[in-house]
Design brief:
The chain is built from eleven helices and 15 strands. By secondary structure, it is of the alpha+beta class. The strands form two sheets. It has a nine-stranded mixed beta sheet, with helices on one face. A hairpin with a 3-residue loop joins β1 and β2 (47-53).
Length: 435
């Protein structure tokens, strides 16, 4: 055999060994179950239903890699959709003073503070979404772009949102029924409406469900196997972005709390005990009650607000067994815009009117909660008519969630492509506990 044949033979042997390793690793993922530990289905041509079975993985990094590969199988243009969505985001954000390069630096810093399992999941996905140039709008998804997609609430800024709940004597079931609206920027290509996702992570006592966007590892809205529901809301204080020294990611912090704590109060206590970069609200509910963690970082009034809490003078609430929140800190001593933002006051007053009106007719059930969370005001505008379901604002409602906390029955209205609808169309996602 010639030296050239030896070289070729050696190369072929190395290639064979590489393919053998890939085959064995893939086989370990699939195992005896006969299927992938990550499945993704397009449901009602509206949202992706993702199921992740953590017990089938040899590592969190392997989970991230397989998840990313499965995304590309069901949505080959995923990278182009996320890339263009990020371009739309930063066309807006850069006009407000946030550069793409600054967001990258923030994301890299915060990633290093995440629990190792979450870093490993991201690294697994970055082995697939790994284009080597950070150019927004080029149709590719670089590592830094995907990292921003994971940490966007920390490094950019989310928009509005609202949430409310009826429980006890105000609920038709005697148990909590929640309505949660997630509002987001109205961007030119509306790419996020192509990425609606409900992700079930099955992991024993750490099992969780996220209502968010395909490929994200963070909750926007979520609940755990113990029956605690949580949702993130924005609160703007006007303060400068802080130093990230000693700071953590609050969406990943919420994920950790839901995976590791089983009661509403324990989840709230964990959240309050961390040091986050951005102020925010965390709406929480279980079968018996609801409230919100007011996360004005550094404020001595930072705490958990309930329906019976004393509020600042701009707001009043006297509806028994009903809770609501808009994008304002309301605990005395906490920061609140002064005067308060008009859209927050009008939505708050609209919540008061809606609950008082419907409670005069009977207790709150699923259909009634759809009418409350889906209320468009007179024109779909929060600042003009107090719309809960927003369609004419800069940040319309992308996801509206209705859920019975005792049975896990859940309905979601996902924003379609095109112009925001004036009223939501709800789809039943779960009839019972999905774990």
């Amino acid at each position: 055999m010639t030296s050239k044949e030896h070289v070729i033979g050696g190369l072929m042997s190395a290639i064979y060994r590489s393919y053998l390793v890939i085959f064995l690793v893939t086989a370990s993922f699939i195992g005896c179950s006969g299927g992938s530990p990550v499945t993704i289905q397009k449901m009602d041509n509206t949202y992706f239903l993702v199921s992740v079975n953590m017990s089938s993985f040899i590592s969190h990094k392997a989970m991230g890699q397989i998840y990313a590969q499965q995304i590309l199988q069901i949505l080959p243009d995923y990278e182009a959709i996320v890339d263009l969505s990020l371009k739309d985001e930063f066309d807006l954000l850069e006009s407000r003073g946030l550069s793409f390069s600054t967001a990258i630096a923030r994301a890299i810093t915060l990633k290093a503070t995440l629990p190792q399992d979450y870093q490993d999941e991201i690294d697994g996905m970055l082995s697939v979404f790994s284009y080597d140039q950070d150019v927004l709008g080029d149709g590719h998804l670089s590592k830094n772009e995907f990292l921003i997609y994971q940490l966007f609430p920390d490094v950019g800024r989310p928009t509005q949102c609202s949430a409310s709940a009826a429980y006890g004597d105000s609920s038709a079931t005697g148990k909590t029924i929640i309505g949660r609206n997630f509002d987001w920027y109205q961007l030119p290509n509306n790419g996020m409406s192509k990425l609606h996702a409900v992700t079930i992570i099955k992991n024993g006592s750490k099992s969780v469900v996220f209502i968010h966007f395909l490929g994200q590892l963070i909750p926007v809205s979520a609940f755990n196997s113990a029956g605690v529901f949580a949702a993130l809301l924005d609160v703007g204080t006007g303060a400068d972005y802080p130093s990230l020294e000693g700071k953590q990611s609050y969406p990943f912090g919420l994920r950790y709390a839901l995976e590791n704590y089983s009661t509403l109060q324990d989840v709230a206590n964990y959240i309050k005990g961390q040091n986050y970069a951005y102020n925010h609200l965390v709406f929480l509910a279980d079968q018996t009650t609801a409230g919100v963690v007011e996360e004005n970082i550094g404020s001595p009034a930072r705490g958990f607000r309930t329906a019976t809490s004393t509020l600042i003078s701009d707001y009043t609430w006297n509806i028994p067994d009903v809770f609501a929140t808009v994008n304002t800190f309301m605990l005395p001593g906490n920061y609140a815009p002064s005067p308060p933002l008009d859209k927050n006051v009008k939505r708050w007053n609209n919540f008061t009117t809606l609950y008082n009106t419907y409670l005069e007719q009977g207790k709150i059930d699923i259909p009634t909660m759809k009418l409350i969370a889906g209320n468009p005001g007179t024109d779909g505008g929060a600042a003009t008519s107090g719309a809960i379901y927003r369609s004419t604002d800069l940040s319309p409602t992308l996801q509206s969630i209705i859920m019975r906390m005792d049975t896990y029955e859940m309905w979601v209205a996902f924003s379609p492509l095109g112009s925001p609808p004036t009223t939501p169309t709800y789809i039943k996602v779960f009839s019972e506990k999905p774990f």
